[in-house]
Amino acid sequence: MNQALRRGALIVFEGCDRAGKTTQCHKLVEVLKREGHRVELMKFPDRSTTIGQMISQYLQKKVELEDHVIHLLFAANRWEAVKKMENLLLNGTTLVVDRYSFSGIAFSAAKPHMDFEWLKQPEVGLLQPDLVLFLELSSDVASKRGEFGQERYEQPQFQRSVRQIFRKLQDKSWQVINADGTPEEVHQDIYEKVKRSIELVSFQQLKKFDKNLGNDQNCEDLSSDSEGVR
Ligand code: FDM
Ligand code: MG
């Protein structure tokens, strides 16, 4: 089969703070590279752009921004990466992305007086992930992972609300990963799923989020409190 015709997979990691997303992203990229895959790591927010620097200032509590404004900046920070992402994927590069639109919606929706339907709209038209790995930590293990940092949103109560909202966004592309294990155990689980996804989507068209984003009702098995993985 002509390798050049294969597209890369868009793999997104989501979850609450301290679930191990960043560690797992790096591990996955390293292993895939070693196997000879074309793969690139991305992270949102991307703090390196002009918009990203505004976001970073906000997260560090150096500036205040109205809740809708910061929401749109997070989304704009993804929009400014769309062309690059699309080109890489079509050229056969798999993208491993640390946080994406689901964090965008869940973190804003955890604030008071934010309209859930409104929050989803800026994401419509962005590339839809082929696989979302949602890292879920049991509260027991979470409480043993040490203190939160100093940035905005790094508070237990807020994180609990975010976690509840993440559940509402789960669709068929999601896999819930039990993140309680050692980094190696968690990686093994993720690795199998990613390999399957890379194979599965290589001849499929790229998809975009449509207005039904987060309205998928066909995933009861993902919405329970279990640590089960499909
Ligand atoms: N965050 C992240 C949002 O509020 N909206 C978004 O769209 C994204 C991508 O920013 F608290 C929040 C989530 C987190 C903070 O993320 C910074 P990192 O992963 O800690 O840099
Ligand atoms: Mg953080």
**Rounded mean pLDDT score:** 92
Enumerate the distinct ligands. Answer: 3'-fluoro-3'-deoxythymidine monophosphate, magnesium ion
Q: Any idea how many domains?
A: 1
User: Which series of helices and strands comes N to C?
Assistant: EHEHHHEHHEHHEHH
The CATH topology annotation reads as Rossmann fold
Distance between the termini: 30 Å
The quaternary structure here is single chain
Q: What is the CATH-assigned architecture?
A: 3-Layer(aba) Sandwich
For the secondary structure, the number of strands is: 5
What is the alpha-carbon Rg in Å? 17 Å
How large is the share of residues in beta strands?
A: 5-15%
Task: Give the uncertain stretches in residue-range form.
Answer: 218-230
Shape: globular
Largest sheet: 5 strands, parallel
What spatial order of strands do you see in the largest sheet?
Answer: 2-3-1-4-5
The top-level CATH class is Alpha Beta
Helix content: 40-55%
Structural class: alpha/beta
Query: Total number of helical segments?
Result: 10
CATH superfamily: P-loop containing nucleotide triphosphate hydrolases
Q: Summary?
A:
The protein has 230 residues and is an alpha/beta fold. Helices cover 44% and strands 12% of the residues.
Features:
single chain; 230 residues; alpha/beta; Rossmann fold; 10 helices; 5 strands; disordered C terminus; binds 3'-fluoro-3'-deoxythymidine monophosphate; binds magnesium ion
Describe it for me?
The protein has 230 residues and is an alpha/beta fold. The chain has one domain: Rossmann fold, CATH 3.40.50.300. It has a five-stranded parallel beta sheet, with helices on both faces. Helix 2 packs antiparallel against helix 3. The longest helix is centred in the last third of the chain and has 19 residues. The C terminus is likely disordered. Bound molecules: 3'-fluoro-3'-deoxythymidine monophosphate and magnesium ion. Magnesium ion binds next to loops. The site of 3'-fluoro-3'-deoxythymidine monophosphate has 9 residues, from helix 5. Its EC number is 2.7.4.9. It holds the Pfam family Thymidylate_kin.
